[in-house]
Amino acid sequence: MTDPLIGAVEAGGTKFVLALARRDGVIVERERIPTATPAETFPAMQDFFRAASRNHGPIGSFGIASFGPIDIDPASPGYGTFTTTPKPGWSGARFHDALGEFDVPIAVDTDVNGAALGEWLGGAGRGCRTLAYTTIGTGIGTGVVRDGRSLAGFSHYESGHIRPPRDPVRDPFAGSCPFHGDCLEGLASGPAIVRRWGDSLDRVAGQSEAVDLIASYVAHLAASLVLLHMPDRLIFGGGVMHAPGLLTSVRRQCEGLLGGYIADSRLDPGLERYIVAPGLGDDAGITGAIALGRQALEG
Ligand code: ZN
Fold first, then answer.
1. What distance in angstroms lies between residue 139's CA and the mean position of ligand 1's atoms?
2. Which DSSP letter does residue 152 get?
3. CATH 3.40.50.80: does it fit domain 5-114+282-297?
4. How close is the Cα of 177 to the center of ligand 1, in Å?
5. How many other CB atoms are found less than 10 A from the CB of residue 108?
6. What is the DSSP letter of 241?
7. Which of 185, 191, 226, 261 is the most exposed, having the fewest neighbouring CB atoms within 10 Å of its CB?
8. Extents of the domains making up the chain
9. Domain 124-278, architecture per CATH
10. How remote is the CA of residue 230 from the centroid of ligand 1, in Å?
């Protein structure tokens, strides 16, 4: 009798990464499909898992790390259902409907929680009990993992919509969030940066000033995460974080905001060990999805 396999899905806004993996995390087959509408993407996903299961053996569970907003409460009747997503056609679509034919447990979490779990297991968060992983990209979000489980309240966290202080003289841009204007996502996400300066952060003229401004907002979140969760480490990933000097500026400004208040050896002087880049790069999401599937398999 072979060990059941894990079906893993990293569902992103532009692509789905699909993988069939062994319990130890080794991927035996993987594929990428575009994120179109559920009527197109879900059947392609089903086809992949049917064929992969024929080739490699029965699937024992699914783990899904998905864009959202999506219901991630296992006790809710709508578990695994997209809620208010502006992505056309996806509101109301449900992973459990698409994968019901396999008749196995399905665990669903957000893409950022999945990436956090992946980094906790095999990336820059290895050895941490509590880890906060934040992505600064098209959107902004944070996953907090403690002892291998992502934390949530009645829904997943929405750190991107915290409102950092904005000095209108230094930054006259009023923000691009349709709900809040100058919340973190409205000020520091990739689209907000392009709207403010007409280009991405690594190409903006007078770059170091721009980098310090964006870093001031990200550092506000970093300090808030320390104060709220006391994580062993903070990871900052996502496309915006590739801008040269940004991570360094976030460390410096976060240390300034904390003002020496948190005295713990984890927060090294300069925060170079405390605030770090991801270790897994593009594989964090699918690694986390496999881990979710393993949790579903083990009940
Ligand atoms: Zn907002």
1. 10
2. -
3. no
4. 5
5. 28
6. G
7. 261
8. 5-114+282-297, 124-278
9. 2-Layer Sandwich (3.30)
10. 24
